[in-house]
Amino acid sequence: MSRFDLLVVRKKMLYKTLISVLIFLTLSIPVITNADRQSAELPSFVSRQLMSNMRDHLETLEEITLLLAESKYAQAADTAENNLGMSSAELHYKKFVGKYMPKGMRNIGTQMHKAASDFALSAREAEKDGGLNRNRVLTALSQVMKQCVACHDFYRAK
Ligand code: HEC
Questions:
Q1: Read out DSSP for 89-121?
Q2: Which is deepest, 63, 77, 91, 123, by most CB within 10 Å?
Q3: 112 in contact with ligand 1, CB cutoff 6 A
Q4: Are residues 85 and 107 in the same domain?
Q5: What is the pTM of this model?
Q6: Which residue out of 46, 152, 153 has the highest number of ligand 1 atoms within 8 Å of its CB and is therefore the one to mutate?
């Protein structure tokens, strides 16, 4: 084997090792984070109420997506604000569920409500300009979902 061949073999081995390490990390990170999820330690009646809110949240996202597909921006804004936005925060969290949440979890909840109100604002702008800023509306929606994902990554109900 010439020196050049040896060099090529070494380089290939290095790449293989690097790729294995990357694959290992990619596969193990979700497991690690899931194992690390913190239990919210909620009383069972609160946890039942929370799960019911959660299923409503998912339904709301489905409705919003459909309204956006139909370019019904004003309706999408109303749906988001009333069900997920700051207007609903008072109703859902402060008075009932939020009171029992660990602080970090409540913060993510508040961020989600804020993101939903921001989404509603950009959807109202889209209503005015006939959907010119449609991309901004979709980005704002993904910011809402980011908070769903963040909380699910960190917390579990039991
Ligand atoms: C502040 C924290 C938090 C936020 C924000 C949040 N969730 Fe959840 N969600 C939870 C927890 C905790 C569970 C229970 C997960 C577990 O125990 O494995 C849950 C469970 C769920 C479930 C399962 C309900 C069931 O009946 O089992 C759905 C669906 C869901 N969330 C949807 C959403 C959607 C959609 C959003 C965003 C719009 C969202 N959640 C935002 C904390 C949150």
A1: HIIIIIIIIHHHS-HHHHHHHHHHHHHHHHHHH
A2: 123
A3: yes
A4: yes
A5: 0.80
A6: 152
Domain holding 31, by residue range, is: 1-36
Spacing, Cα 20 to ligand 1 middle (Å): 33
Same-domain check for residues 47 and 107: yes
Query: Do 46 and 13 sit in the same domain of this protein?
Result: no
Dig out the tokens for 45 from the structure: 């009646």
| Residue 152 host element (H or E) | helix 134-154
Reading the chain (158 residues) residue by residue, the pLDDT tens digits are 666 676 666 777 666 665 665 555 555 544 445 567 988 888 888 888 889 999 999 999 999 999 999 999 999 999 999 999 998 877 766 566 778 889 999 999 999 999 999 999 999 999 999 999 899 999 999 999 999 999 999 999 87
Ligand 1 centroid, distance to 51 Cα (angstroms) = 7
Nearest CA-CA partner of 45 in 99, 82, 121, 115: 99
